Amino acid sequence: MKKSLKLVLLNSTLVVGLMATVLSAVQAPVLGKSKETSYLIAFKKDNLPNDFEEQIEDAGGEVETVVEEIGIVSASSDDPNFLDKLRESTDVLAAEEELEIHLDEEDPEAADGQPITDIPQPDWDDPDQNYHDLQWDVKRVTHDFDSHEISKGDSDTVVGIIDTGLDFDHPDLKKNADEKGSKTFVPGTDDAWDENGHGTHVAGTIAADGKVLGIGPKLTVRAYRVFGATGGAQQSWITDALVAAANDKVDVVNMSLGGWRWMAQNYGEKGDSASIVAYKRAVQYAVKKGVTVVVAAGNDSRDLGSLHDMQEYWKDTYGLDIKGPSRVVPAQLPGVITVSSSNEWSKDQIAFYSNYGNPIDIAAPGGDNGPEYDALYREDPKGDYLDKRDFRYRALSTWPTYLPPYFTSNLKGYAYMHGTSMAAPKVAGIAAVIKSEHPNYSPAQVAALIRKTAVDYGKKGQDKYFGAGEANIFEALED
C-alpha cells in the first residue's frame, strides 16, 4: 500500500506513512489560507539589518521568530500583498509562505500485521530483566555490544535531538537525559517532554542504559523540541533549534526529520528558496561551531541523485509537473552526514522505503517489515499486503512510559519502529562516542572515521545505497 499523504494549510504535509517513521514535510499546493499566514524570510546577510523589524511592519507583517545569527526571520501577516511589498527591499534575499511539518502516525488497519504480544512486559524492579537480545540493530553496529567494553561514551559528550522531545523519567534514559538543558521551540509549551514518542525512541538508540542499550550508554542526550503531540513544526522552529544547539555547544545533533523543497523560492523562479537558505545557513553555523550534524535520508524510496526520480515524485504524489530541481532537506545539504537505512536480513539491499543516491554518506540499521514484505513491495509498490508485515524486523527502543503502547506491540515503555529516523541516531551515537574518545576531532574528521571504518555492504566500495557501507562503532574504536 502506498504511504498515506495529507494536504494541509501552510504548504505542508507529512511523509510519515505506512512505510516509514521519519518526520517529513513537502512544499505542496495550497488548498486554502487562514486569515493570517506565516512567512519565512531570508535576508541577504547573516547579520540582520538594523531596521529589519520596521521593514516587515511596513510591509504589513509582524515578527514572530528571529534567528539573528544567520539572518532568518519568520513573520505573520493577513495582508495578501505582504510578500510583494517585502520583496521590494534590497535587504531581502528570499521570502515565502512558511513550510510546516505535521505528525501523522502509521495507521494499524484491519489487514495489518499482528502486534507482537509474546515479549514480557518490563518489570522495573527486576534489574536482570532486559531486551538486549532483541536489539539486532544495535548489536550489529556495536559488534554484539563489544564496543561498550572499549567505550560507552561519556557524560561530557552531548547529543542534541531535534525532535518531539524526551521522556526524561524513562528508567533507561533518566541517568543520561539532560532535562535542565533541554528546550522547546513549540509556541504554547514550556517544556521538552515528549508527547508523541518519536524523540524518545531516537534517544534510546543513542544513549539508553537499561533494559535496552544505546550506542553510547554513558552519553548525554538533550532535547530540542520542535513538535507537539499532533501539531506541526514550522521551518523557523527547526532552524532556531539547530542554531540554539550549536550555541549550547552540543557535540552532535540528530535530525530524524526532513522534507522536499523546490529549489526556487516560488515555482518558476530562480534562486534558493528561503527554507533552503535557512537550512544551509543553520547547518554551516553548527558545523563551524564544531557540531557534527547527522540527518535521515528520508523514506520515499527515491533516488536523490536523479532529477527524473524527483520529478516523478511530484507527479505521482501531487500530479505536478516540476521542471526544475528539488531537494530533500537537510539530507541533500553540504556539511551533514546523510544516513540511509539497512535491514536485518540483507547485505545487498537497503530497506525498501529508504531514499538513496549520491547524497548518501553511510547506512545504518533502521529496520523494515521482513523479506516477504520487501519482495512484494519491490514487485508492486502500490500493492496491498499489510498483513505480510513482520514487526520483529523493526528496531526496538525506548518509548514514553506515560503513552499508550505503539501499535506494533503491546509493550509499555518500548516500541518497535522503522525508518531512516531509526537509522540516523545509530550514526549520531557512533559520532558521539568517537567524539568522546577524540574531543578535538572536527565534524569532518568524525565523518571521515565513520566512513573509513564502515562495513562494506552492497557493491564493493562507495555506492548509492549504502554510501561507504554500514556504520560500525566497534570498528571505529578499533581503528
What's the arrangement of secondary structure elements?
Blueprint: E1 23-26, E2 37-43, H1 52-58, E3 62-67, E4 72-77, H2 82-86, E5 92-97, E6 100-102, H3 136-141, H4 147-150, E7 158-163, E8 183-184, H5 198-207, E9 220-225, E10 232-234, H6 235-247, E11 252-255, E12 257-262, H7 274-288, E13 292-296, H8 307-318, E14 326-329, E15 336-342, E16 362-365, H9 371-379, E17 395-398, E18 414-417, H10 420-437, H11 443-452, H12 473-478
Parallel strand pairs: 1-12, 7-9, 7-11, 8-9, 11-13, 13-15, 15-16
Antiparallel strand pairs: 2-4, 2-5, 3-4, 6-10, 12-14, 17-18
Helix pairs in contact: 5-10, 6-7, 10-11
Active site: 163 (charge relay system), 198 (charge relay system), 421 (charge relay system)
Pfam family, one: Peptidase_S8
Family: Belongs to the peptidase S8 family.
Q: Concise description?
A:
Helices cover 24% and strands 18% of the residues.
List keywords for this structure.
479 residues; alpha/beta; Alpha-Beta Plaits; Rossmann fold; 2 domains; 7-stranded parallel sheet; 4-stranded antiparallel sheet; 12 helices; globular; disordered N terminus
Global shape: globular
In total, the number of domains comes to: 2
Strand content: 15-25%
Give the second-level CATH assignment, the architecture of the largest domain.
Answer: 3-Layer(aba) Sandwich
Number of strands: 18
How many DSSP helices? 12
Low-confidence parts: 1-21, 24-34
Order of helices and strands: EEHEEHEEHHEEHEEHEEHEHEEEHEEHHH
Protein name: S8 family serine peptidase
Signal peptide: 1-27
Pfam families: Peptidase_S8
Domain Peptidase S8/S53: 155-469
